[in-house]
Amino acid sequence: MIKTDICDLLGIEYPVLQGGMAWVSNASLASAVSNAGGLGIIAAMNSNGEQLRSEIQKTREMTAKPFGVNVMLMSPFAEEVASVIAEEKIPVVTTGAGNPSRFIPLWKDAGTKIIPVIPSCALARMVEKRGADAVIAEGSESGGHVGELTTMALVPQVCDAVKIPVIAAGGIADGRGMAAVFMLGAVGIQMGTRFLVARECTIHQNYKNKILAAKDIDTILTGKRLGHPVRCLKKSGVKIITRKGIRYHRFKRGTRIYGNRGAQTRGS
Ligand SMILES: Cc1cc2nc3c(=O)[nH]c(=O)nc-3n(C[C@H](O)[C@H](O)[C@H](O)COP(=O)(O)O)c2cc1C
Prior knowledge:
single chain, alpha/beta, TIM Barrel, 3-stranded antiparallel beta sheet, 12 helices, binds flavin mononucleotide
């Protein structure tokens, strides 16, 4: 297995990151990936500081290897979780959905390596200037919230735009995808969807089955009109939202899906 600068930077054996996934990547999945030699990442999603601290403690009981925390910058608890990450001296932080510049000094002081997920060269350059250690260039093939550019178009441009290491994400699920993005200049990969079906991933088996059964055209982008595109499985709830363009829908069983959030994690 190939070793790159990312392995030395993060203290891992393989240049493979498991992407932070809201409602999915908890202590069980993150510790399993770290124990296997990659970098497991707990999703802070919209947890408050103490909920995150408890997940960090659980992860530490399950692995002695480095692991990371992913901060959703849109979370109302972003400040709180940023402080917990510094207090707990988490080795690596990744950030999604925005510009993490305001937290960079705090995390630098704690010795945390900072790896923002970026959808464009402009944001890659900005976070490099502010002190990011690497970036994750995530293309729109990715599950969850996505940007405009595809992995194939984004990764080489980001590699040319910055000097820090570039990790590629979006639509990578095996060694072929990894080899392809290495040819584009990346020195590591982040995968999300592939890890959903791992034994150690605690999502429901029905959700895993839907992922495994999904074919080439079975995902859809929702939320483009609202400015927050999300790639999710094309299931019945998602079809209603995209067809009617409604902000929420009350299902017969009483389940609520607000806007485009939630549908991706329920596999509905
Ligand atoms: C169910 C799900 C939830 C996700 N939640 C987050 C999140 O909370 N924060 C984040 O930065 N990225 C999130 N992502 C993106 C992943 O971290 C990763 O970058 C992406 O899944 C890579 O693309 P792939 O799914 O094609 O492997 C999520 C992805 C999925 C599939």
